Amino acid sequence: MKLVTYRLSGAEYVGALTADGKGVLPLPAADMNTLIETMTPADLRSAAAAAERGGAVPLSDVELLAPIPRPRQDVVCLGMNYRDHAEESARYSADAFTKSSTAAVYFSKRVSEAGKPDGVIPRHAGLTDRLDYEAELAVVLGKAARDVKAADAADCIFGYTVLNDVSARNLQTEHNQWYFGKSLDGFTPMGPCIVTEDEVPYPPALSISSTVNGELRQNSNTKYLLHSISEIIAELSQGMTLLAGTIIATGTPAGVGMGFNPPKFLKSGDIVTCEIEKIGRLTNMVK
Hints:
Elements: E1 2-8, E2 11-17, E3 23-26, H1 32-38, H2 41-54, E4 57-58, E5 63-65, E6 75-79, H3 83-92, H4 94-97, E7 105-109, E8 120-121, E9 131-132, E10 135-141, E11 157-164, E12 167-168, H5 169-174, H6 179-182, E13 190-196, E14 207-212, E15 215-221, H7 229-236, E16 247-249, E17 271-276, E18 280-286
């Protein structure tokens, strides 16, 4: 099932896309966080079937928002979780990106409101001249996770979405941590939907790519994660509770702007598309 948050006549709703992707079936939850916390897979199927009998809302009549417009906690992110991206990062700045161990690199990303599909990425010209993109598979947890074993991690997953981890590289590399350079307003476009976990064989082996103005930049597969989703959930949940609705961005493959020589940073008017197999496309313009 593909779940969306949308705006219609000034109000926000959650729904499921129809099988042909041309309509939305309204679901009885106040928002996506509430849906994740309160509705079982059986509940979702029953509610979608009931909505279908009442008729779908044409997708062309609604405005799609990020699936979780306002996450309840910071997004948890993985840094350098594809080998080729770790290598290009170290070439760009050995001081900022050279790893001294094989341990996972975790950081968080403040999100006051996630960017919508087909929305804009703010240029923030007064703060950065090195605006970059990162196509990532994001995992959405379906229940609170604490002290989870790797073998049980898949049971905690609600679904998956596409996330663009937009980054201000000058801010990221000037500080000893990456929080500021990753957390400017508009730096977390997400969507177009959450695909429920039953639609994707585990562990996900999905093609992932990005283009800028139609030029292919990133082209890889999520099977190449250095630290698996099971490992990530198991490690993070040791001593730290991950709430239902937690979003984990699993890292990006090679091909980001700073990886080119010379770098290809984003500028006003650029159109960035991040795409993941089975989930969809996330397209945003830099403005």
